[in-house]
Records
---
Amino acid sequence: MIEYSPFWKTLKLSQETTYTLINKHHISSSIIDKLRNNKPLNTTTINDLCRILNCDICEIARYIPSDTDQPL
């Protein structure tokens, strides 16, 4: 499972807020909702968040093994 708790820590340490992500950087509110609920995001969105927050991908998301992961 990919989860986004690192994003929330990174956001808190930055000068950005969910408001500025939505209104200044044009990140949709549905993306914010996906981050809140650990729903899948595409890599373009993750790239945009890394650029905006000037951070590495590990500061946005992390992988946690889960029994509900899809089998290979």
---
Amino acid sequence: MFAPPSPSAIRALPAQHRARLMEFAREVSFPQGVRLFEEGGRADRFWVVRTGTVALDMRVPGRRPAVIERLGHNELVGWSWLFEPHIWHLGAEAETLVRAYEFDAAPVNALRHADPVFGQAVAEWVGNVVAHRLHAARVRLLDLYAPYGAGSTV
């Protein structure tokens, strides 16, 4: 049975717009344990994972950062570059060796503004990623910190 792609998968972007986006890609790699970005830092780029795993995490006062989601092949890492004030809302770390396509946000945003059809497609793709990540963060934080049974509706 075919499963639809995750909203964060680059396949969720229509093929013609995916091809245009990939014109801006450059190949990068990150060793295990490297931080791609920190919560609160300036968001001026984003990545699509080719191989490996990236953990998205959230600072929790008095505790280690909580891993919210793990991203892998073809998934988008980073969405804060699209929205003012362009500050990372989460942190990200390479859990394994990661090979990815890296995109500088400035030229992608310039094309978004020059080509409204492309811009709309990218905005919808990234917007779906944001909605998915917010839901994942809520579920994960409830798993970690809610009293046992707090989410049940019995």
---
Amino acid sequence: MSYSYPIDEVFWSKEEIIDVVSFYSMVEQAYESSVKKEEILLAYTRFKQVVPSKSEEKKLCGEFEKESSYSCYQTVKKARESQDNGRIKMSK
């Protein structure tokens, strides 16, 4: 990994930063191997508690996708649309 996660060290607590980084990490894992549907959805719920604004979410996820080429939106969308409770695997 040769990029940094978009985080707000000024306004977020240490726990909030951990929650946001955990979500980004789950998105990466979905592309690089696979991730449990329930885990990515739980990580997204925690992310949304830290970043409730839709515009801020789009900004942060856009920055993350620009740096990593991994889409938060597509990953969450696939997890939500998945009919089973197994693992999801993203492809580039």
